[in-house]
Amino acid sequence: MPLTPPALAVRLRRLWAGEIVTSDELATSPLGVAWHECDLALVGTVLTVVGPARCRDALAGPLGELLARRASEVTRAKVTDVRWRTGARPASVRPDRTSDTDVFGAQDPLLDAYPSILADLRAAVPANAAPAALAAVGALRLVGVSRHRLWFAARTSGDRDALGKVPGARAALFVAVQTYQGVKRPLHHVLVDPSYRAKGLLLG
C-alpha cells in the first residue's frame, strides 16, 4: 500500500522524536544542546532540518548520515536527501497554520510522552458510546502528536472507513480528541498504515 503524505510525515516524526533525539550521533553533534530549537519539514523527496545558525554544520557528520539513512528506510526510499536550513522560529504557531503533513515542530512532544497522552485520550472516549462505536475507535492507534494535532493509524482501509459507517464512532473519536485538546474544533487525522502493530498504541 502506498504511503500517503500524512503517513510519511508521521513516520519521520516518530523517527526524529524517538530514535534521532536519543542517539549518540545527535548528542555529539552541534545539535546536542539545540535540537529542541529545530523544526523538520518534508517537501517532495527532501527532508529539511530548520534550526539556529550556530548549528548549520550539524548534518555534515555522523548525525546527517544517520538521519539520511534512517529517513530513507522508514519512508521506503521516498526521502532521497536531507538538508539544513537556517531559520528563526516564531514564538508560537497558530493551529490554523499547521497541517496533517507537518513532520515536527520545536514545541511538539517527543515519543516518550505518547503513553501519557494516549492514557488521557482513552479516558476521554465517551464510555456511553455504543459497543460497536467503541470497538471502531478502539481499533485505532495513536501514532503522532504535535502541539495542535493528533494522528491515528488504522491497520486497514476498512478499519478507517468504519469510523464513518458505524453509528457513533466518528462522534466518539471527535469527543475524545476535543476533550484532550480542549478546543471546539479538534485537529486530527486518521491514516492507514499496517506497520503499527503494538497493542500499547491502541485507543481501546
Throw out a few tags for this protein.
single chain; three-stranded mixed sheet; alpha/beta; 16% strand; GMP Synthetase, Chain A, domain 3; 6 strands; elongated
What is the architecture of the largest domain at the second tier of CATH?
A: 2-Layer Sandwich
- Helix share bin: 25-40%
Mean pLDDT reading: 95
- Which percent band covers the strand fraction? 15-25%
The spatial strand order of the largest sheet comes to 1-2-3
Give a count of the beta strands, DSSP E runs of length 2 or more. 6
Stretches with pLDDT under 50, minimum 5 residues: none
CATH topology of the largest domain: GMP Synthetase, Chain A, domain 3
Largest sheet: 3 strands, mixed
State the fourth-level CATH superfamily of the largest domain: DnaA, N-terminal domain
Cα gyration radius (Å): 18 Å
Anisotropy-based shape = elongated
Structural class estimated from helices and strands = alpha/beta
Could you give the distance between the termini? 25 Å
The number of domains is: 2
